[in-house]
Amino acid sequence: MNLNATIFFQMLVFFVLGWFTMKFVWPPLTKAMDERRQKIADGLAASEKGKADLAQAQARISLIEASAKSETHTRIADAEKQAAQLIDAARREAEAERARIQAQARQDAEQEVQRVRDQLREDVAALAVKGAEQILKREVDARAHAELLSQLKAQL
Fold it and tell me: Does the keyword NADP apply (predicted)?
């Protein structure tokens, strides 16, 4: 065989193989590589977007947390104020009740003292009548001398 013919056929096979590769093999490979490159770029973009979303979410969480803490402190302060008001109101009510009970007790004591004084006056008047009876050795009519006995009770 001739060396030139061999080289010619080898070149012809090489160019046919090159043409075949460029026509049928190379486009799917470049398409696959482009798709893969696009997927990787999309993945990186999604990753960056995810990082940005995460940062935004963390910032929102920090704001919500700060707001919740502030609201909690406000509610606690309000609850403490309300508790203090309730305690003060209960204390005032208790003081008013104590004053009312003391006034009632004083009034009851005064009434009891007045009743005991009246009873004592009657007992003293009765003793005075009995004493006068014994002194006079005769009976004094209490009905007849009611006015005199009233004056005696008033003086006592």
Answer: no
